[in-house]
Design goal:
The chain is of the alpha/beta class. The chain is built from 15 helices and 10 strands. Strands 5-6-4-7-3-8-9-10 form an 8-stranded mixed sheet, with helices on both faces. It has a two-stranded antiparallel sheet with strand order 1-2. The N and C termini lie far apart (114 Å).
């Protein structure tokens, strides 16, 4: 008998068996329990990897779990923005505006969206400028002219209406004239209350519902606070009075316009200018009106308000007498060298009467000019006001 010693059979582990995971337990390659020449079955015994020797995949999963835990941390409300939440695909499906654009959209069963017309795009761009968000705190806009009869109160009203109609926050116009102003007469009056009532109730006023009973609201959502109308009041509306009113307004409004009187050296004017984040100077179209507006800028520059003067907007009222007798372009060129922006305000028969203004019934050019003025003013409001 011849003994033949066969070589010991070995089993090399294929690459696909090098790392096997059963359930969530990482394992090493299995062990062959029993081997027969006539079988190819292999039973694997999972071997747990000791802690500290985790595989790369296990480490990656651990990092993912930590990342998920971080994502569960409370987020501030400011992070819940429309850009983040709204479905971008839904945005693309918005109906276009414009005669031709809407027709194509309708005839194509909403499959072809050409986007808005150029005119609509320009309108929306202007809306975005008017509606721009400011940092926390109330922004004050001072509207002034050192000459009466140039349309200061009318333009203040138009500016307030143009802002309030587009913005989604609260806008108020205050009649800060130390004498009897006429701002409240340009809208439908819904109350007989005045700035004096606010001064008297300032310390006890904590709710907007209480304050809203003291103002008149226009259809554009502009609130108007009337000036003193009682002829028996001996003390004019002064700096302390304005500060009391401003303190209350700051609780409820994001934007406040102050329609000022003609006296630039009065105490109330000093208080208004200290709080002002933007300034609108009204000039008529005649030579003497333009000179007086220019002298107002000089006064501001030499009395500590040079930055406010440079950043101001001049509203050039071309509806005043004698405008057609001067070269209005030359007046505009002069102001361009001194201020940030100039907006021409046209003649409108509805405004000429001095009666209640219905903003939506004004001529298209008048509305467009008021909106341009509102956008120009909003463009110039940058940093938060520092008390």
């Amino acid at each position: 008998m011849i003994d033949v010693t066969l070589p010991e059979q070995t089993h090399e582990i294929p690459e696909h068996e090098q790392a096997v995971s059963i359930g969530e337990s990482p394992v090493q390659a299995g062990k062959v329990l029993e081997t027969h020449l006539n079988t190819t079955s292999v039973e694997l015994i999972p071997v747990l990897i000791p802690e500290g020797q985790n595989s790369g995949a296990h480490k990656a999963r651990g990092k993912a779990n930590k990342s998920e835990a971080k994502s569960l941390a409370p987020e501030p409300t400011e992070l819940l923005t429309s850009d983040r939440v709204l479905d971008r695909r839904a945005k693309k499906k918005l109906k276009p505006e414009g005669v031709w654009q809407e027709l194509v959209y309708f005839l194509s069963a909403h499959l072809i969206n050409l986007g808005d017309s150029q005119k609509v795009k320009e309108r929306k761009q202007l809306d975005a400028r008017i509606a721009r968000k400011f940092d926390t705190g109330t922004r004050f806009i001072a509207v002034l002219s050192r000459k009466g009869g140039v349309g200061k109160t009318t333009i203040s009203t138009l500016l307030g209406m143009a802002l309030a109609e587009v913005r989604d926050d609260n806008v108020i116009a205050i009649d800060a004239n130390p004498d009897r102003g006429t701002l409240a007469e340009r809208i439908v009056k819904r109350t007989s209350a005045t700035v004096r009532d606010v001064v008297e109730k300032a310390k006890k006023m904590d709710s907007f519902s209480e304050f809203s009973g003291l103002v008149s609201r226009d259809e554009t959502r502009l609130d108007v606070l009337s000036s003193d109308s009682n002829p028996k009041i001996s003390e004019p509306f002064g700096a302390e009075d304005f500060e009391s009113v401003a303190a209350v307004i700051s609780k409820f409004y994001s934007l406040a316009l102050a329609d000022c009187g003609t006296g630039i050296v009065l105490s109330v004017m000093q208080s208004v200018l200290k709080r002002a984040d933007a300034l609108v100077i009204i000039s008529g179209g005649s030579l003497d009106e333009a000179r007086l507006a220019s002298e107002t800028l000089t006064w501001l520059e030499t009395n500590g308000y040079s930055e406010l003067a440079r950043n101001s907007v001049v509203a050039l009222n071309t509806a005043t007498p004698a405008t057609n007798l001067v070269n209005i372009d030359e007046i505009e060129t002069h102001f361009k060298s001194r201020v940030r922006s100039i907006v021409r305000m046209p003649y409108d028969p509805q405004l000429a009467t001095g009666a209640v203004i219905n903003f939506r019934q004004l001529r298209p050019l008048t509305i467009a000019s008021a909106r341009m003025l509102a956008a120009a003013v909003a463009d110039g409001i940058h940093a938060p006001h520092e008390d």
